[in-house]
Amino acid sequence: MKMNLSFSSNNSNKVTPRNHTARGHLPTGIRRRSASTMSGCSSRPFSKENSDVTLAPIPKIKSNSGDHENLNLTPRERVNENNKLKAFESIEKRLHDIQSEFCQKLESLKLNSSDKLKGSYKFISVVRNDKCELLVNEEDMKGAPKALPADSIGEFKERVRGTLGKCVQSLFDYYKDYQTLDEEDHGEIYEKLQNTALNELNVYLDDLCDPNHEPANYTTDVQIVKMQRELQECNKSLKMADKKLLDAQKDYDDKVRDLELEFKAKCEEDITRRDLQILELQKKEKELERQNENLKNEKQLLQDELENNTTNVSNMSKKLSQLEMHLKDEKDILEEKTESLTKELNAARDKLDEVMKEKQNLELNVGQLLQEQQNDIEKLKNTIEELSNEKGALQDQLAALEKACDENSTYPNMKRKLQESEDRVVELQDTLEANEKLKDINQNQSKEAQMEVAKLRQSEAEKRREIEKLKIELSKAQYNGVQLEEQVKRDQQLLDVRSKLINSLQTNEKDQRIHTEGLYAQVAEKNNIINELNNELRIKSEEFRNLFTTISAKQMELSNQEHMIKLLEESNDRSQMLRVKQEEKIGRMEEEIAHLKQTMAAYQTNVLSSNNTNNTCKSQLFAPVTPRDNYNENYVYYASQRKRKRQVDISVKKYEI
User: Where are stretches of biased composition, namely Polar residues (predicted)?
Assistant: First the structure.
């Protein structure tokens, strides 16, 4: 089990701006100057005290990741970036704790089960500024080895670097005098150009930022034009200095490349010879190691297969016995189920027959009842018609009798007849009511019979569904029994094949043991040869290590010089931006002054014209407006000058890009 995870976070290339120093109260609209551009300079560079002072070298600025990029971000984006950094730091701490906990558990497990934990574990490390840090607590690293093993690749690389470092150091010592002369010449030129450019910039910025400085009408314009020309000359001198710096850096790089090529050509000749010998020995060693590993792996595989086969045989025998028992149980269960199902089927069939008989009887009874009801209904209709006819006749008789009574009220026979007819009408009404009641009773009986028939039909459908389900379960049980029998046959065939394999593997294991004993004897002889070569490689690796240390020192010097150049470029950009903003502010102030002069002159002419009659005003605050002092022309002149300055700034920026 190997975990080879590593990542690097190198933040040496990002630069953060230094803190700005406050220099007096500046007017609104003008930014303060950076301390990185004015390091080692006084506020008055042309004073007698500071006339001989030279610029101090700009120190290397410690940079944090993302600070230089955050200058162009909004506040919300900066907050998001800070949250991302905090999340990254918390994840790193968590990884730190996890790896330390893993170390502790690994040490505790080594005491109990050392045979099972055979392997190499590689932990995650972080590379910051060419320094590797392992993400584990210092307490957990006490038991770790201080040096890497002799046969590791990392130690071989360190030895090679040491030997290369020694060789390169000897070459650099040889060319040291020539190199120091060139570096001093370039340094003097660079410091002179830097002093002149920064002094001129300081003078210009101090004059512009001075709150006591009040611009005059014509003299300020002349000074501004002069300062613009001086700034252009300073920019040109800075460009020339940058070109010279680039040329000097190119010459230095070419010399370093030539030296490296010469050194590499010499070293490669020596290294190739030794590499060939090392490669041959390493190939032989690797072949032997591969053979040993293959034999060990084959042995382990055979042992594992034997163990697996024995376990499989025992498991299969157990499974067979279990399957046989299971088959017997299932057969018994199936027989019981079939018996119970047959009984239930017979009972259901008997119930169905009874239900069908009851259904037929009910249908016959219902038919008879319906016929009887229809006959009763017809009889009742006939009786109702007869009664209605009798009623009409009786009503006619009553009408006739009433007429007769009116005529002859003395006849007793007529009264008797009337009484009899009234009794007959009452009897007929009673018979009608009785017939209607019988009709309602017959209707209720027919509805109850229909409900019973519907219930019987539903029970019949349910019984049929139960019978179908029982048939499906029977078929499934029979299918499972067939499959179990087939599986038992297959398991028996597999057992026969595996027993044959076990016998063949045992014979192969005996042959391979004899072969491995001979290989171990050969490996012991090769290990002695490899140890001698490793001692020689250690000596060479120390030499290469010294060479690499000298090369890394020179590369650090180059990176410092590049960093200084970047800082100067940034200071130049900031000064140009500040100059443009100050020119815009001066232009706005000039426009306001010209406008105020025009208004005051107009106001003065109006006042004088009104007061000429009395001749009271003899002196004027401002000179009268004349064609010679045309302010519109001055405004046009200032506007044209500002446009020309902006065009010059744009062309300078394009040239720098």
Answer: 1-19, 35-45
